[in-house]
Specification:
Two copies of one chain form a homodimer. By secondary structure, chain A is α/β, with parallel strands linked by helices. Chain A has helices at about 50-60, 65-80, 130-135, 135-140, 160-170, 180-190, 205-225, 235-245, 270-275, and strands at about 25-30, 60-65, 90-95, 145, 170-175, 195-200, 225-230, 250-255, 265-270, 290-295.
């Protein structure tokens, strides 16, 4: 039950001390990761603000998408800001596996360890479930960090359910500033930035994908809304080919590959222009790409 | 005309030297601003990565939303990374005024200095228009920076048209990583992060706004898609009241106020819960807020 009081106190703001019988709760800090997925890592301060690294170095309880990459991330933090406790002493727990991986299609029910999402009335279910157990350190007063593989946790990756559970438990949730590939791609595209939709992945079936591309064109045209989608890197080329094949010649397509990386690039052109001068080589099958269209 | 060649060379990557008759072009660097709108500024490295500050310190040609706040920003950069040239020696040009201010409703034609956006076939118009003139330094080989008042340029603010013109002119566009209030709010909300739409501002007319809120609920329910919207700060309270009045009790509403600021906070609850325990004071009329809903 959320307190019937002013909004939860924010960090750094003094507020009335809690009643003696209530243990002050820890915060859930949403820690951004880089966009380099551990490949040819650059210095962390190329992408993450110093204050974020300082906060990360102080956190001793972590909820993460993948423990191995989380430890690699923390080693990189340590190179810039010494960890307050040695890495081995930290508590690093992986999110339940049902929450990971390629998201299910929206029409499918989302089940799994969290007991389903998106159904009215289930918000309360998070309070007593596995998420509450994972957040026990915060309830007991310890700050916790949430970290995903790339970018901001909970945006196009697992983590949202943990954040929802945190709210249900009355924890203070603080998102730390970091890079979002979707927003960097949108900014780099020059397409409408006042209205946009991120639609996740397109269907893998060729016919369903064609239909979906045309739906996105239609929606972008009617609502003046840029459509943003992504793909697993090794399918980047196939997706680009599909879009070039079936979208209208005047539709604008923007592609950003390897955002924030030295070898990254961004291009915006009409479908007709892309067809006339496609990328000289195959679209990278290892660097993440973001696709945006506007009809 | 874009070169019929591999994607434009990215910074830091060596590529074949251009033919002797072609002057190497400058890059258009999309420089993120803070989210503090100049009020009670924190150190820049709380929100911006060091490498971004270093890049900003080197840029001598700027296209900005507001020259005065841009100079204030550059003074803050200078405190952390000395500017390569004195502030007075920099070229700081404001974007044309028609591109600024509250965005027009999607159904209205977008006219103005840029000659309209969103109409097929007008992409080429940018090549010879005012944008091309503003980008002349880059065409002549000088790196340029694009800066808006808050967050990433071109996302929910002017700047997209300049980026579009840059692409049309064959310039390399590089988005630098920084904070996006929309993504921080989404991450902090715990709502669906796999599909979301940013719809900008809601209508000011009460009846139209009610209709729009119900449209957003309907869309979020059908598409399992979080709906994100914003308001001018002094209307924050009125918007919250309107949403609480007419949205369905089980709809989830998340509000983030003052993201990245010490006094900021984020809360997610059902409409019913918000009604039972509204914020203790009026919603801030000066700090930016982001609203998210999911029915």
């Amino acid at each position: 039950m959320l307190p019937a009081a002013p909004p939860p106190p924010a960090p750094g703001v003094s507020s009335s001390p809690p009643p003696p019988s209530v243990t002050p709760r820890g915060h859930l800090w949403l820690v951004p990761n880089t966009l380099d997925l551990g490949a040819a890592p650059q210095p962390l301060d190329a992408v993450l603000p110093t204050a974020v690294l300082q906060r990360a170095a102080r956190l001793q309880h972590w909820l993460v998408e993948d423990a191995k990459t989380a430890r690699a991330f923390l080693k990189r933090v340590h190179e810039m800001v010494p960890l307050q406790q040695p890495l081995q002493a930290l508590s690093i727990t992986e999110l339940p596996r049902a929450a990971k991986g390629r998201p299910v299609a929206p029409a499918a029910a989302r089940t799994g360890a969290m007991g389903g999402r998106g159904t009215p009335g289930e918000h309360g279910g998070a309070r007593a479930g596995p998420a509450a157990q994972l957040l026990a350190p915060a309830v007991a007063g310890h700050d916790m960090g949430l970290l995903s593989e790339a970018g901001l946790p909970g945006v196009a990756d697992p983590g949202a359910e943990m954040v929802a559970a945190a709210h249900a438990l009355g924890l203070v949730v603080v998102p730390l500033p970091g890079a979002s590939s979707l927003m960097l791609a949108l900014a780099a595209s020059g397409l409408h930035g006042q209205r946009f939709a991120f639609v996740g992945y397109l269907p893998q079936d060729a016919a369903a994908r064609r239909t979906r591309i045309r739906e996105l064109e239609s929606r972008s045209r009617q609502a003046h809304e840029t459509q943003i989608f992504i793909e697993t890197p090794y399918r980047n080329g196939a997706l680009l080919a599909a879009v070039l094949e079936c979208a209208a010649p005047a539709t604008q397509l923007a592609v950003s590959v390897g955002l924030t990386l030295p070898e990254g690039w961004s291009r915006t052109a009409t479908i007709a222009e892309w067809r006339r001068s496609p990328p000289g080589g195959a679209l990278s099958d290892r660097m993440p790409a973001v696709f945006l269209l506007q009809a």
